[in-house]
Amino acid sequence: MTFQPPPLPREHGAWAMLAIPLLVGLAASGRPASSSLLILPATLLLFLARYAALPAATRLAKGRNVPEGYVARRFVWSAVYLAGSAVFLLAAVTTAAPAARWATVLMAVVTGVLGTVHAALALVSRDRTLWGELIGLTGLACSATLVMAAAGRPLDGKAWAVTGLCLGYFVTSVAYVRTYRTRDRGKTDAAAACIAVHVLVLAGWIALWQQGWLPGLGLVAFVPVAMRTAWGLWRPPANVRAVGWTEMVVATGFLVLAALAVAS
Fold first, then answer.
1. pLDDT in tens, 17-32
2. What's the gap between Cα 14 and its chain centre?
3. What are the structural domain ranges in the chain?
């Protein structure tokens, strides 16, 4: 039995959804602090811990056969990643300003609980439902506010608006990809639902802007999102690979604009 680390996730979208809130939160934190920078490896290792354990746990939960040593290897590496994540999180909390420590712990708990719930839903094949995906996406988006809390930023409306900004992008991305897959099966009525999701997200961002929690430039981050969806609905990509590359371009554009907005 070999304990070689499990292969890294190949889904570009998963890496983008992990990186966007962390980098946007870092931009919103102002001058980088060691405490906020330590959140990045802590979150990355937590992501890898989940990725290592979940396939094995899912197979066990569904009673599927697994190769010899597969479960042990996955769980051992998950424990290693989880321990590393805890070490970095503890370092982030201890190096944060005393006034920021409880907020950092609170956001770490919120993010961890949402991620755990989403993983539990995966064991019963409910993680791809509407509410299941919203829970998972919210957990990812909350890492932006976690970074800000570690940097000493208060958990006010502006901090939560950064999470809302990232969550809005995630929701539009999932809605667009789902619509593409549904249209590929001949169901064109999903386009209306996709457009409605984008309208709701834009309305939410405008509400945050009107409250003074989101800079006006944050609304500009919706431009590449809207262009992607409008073009994709008019001329659907040739295949899933094309969808993936389009999402990477849009994710990059959103990341740049969102980071500039919250850093201004």
1. 999 999 999 999 988 8
2. 8
3. 1-155, 160-264
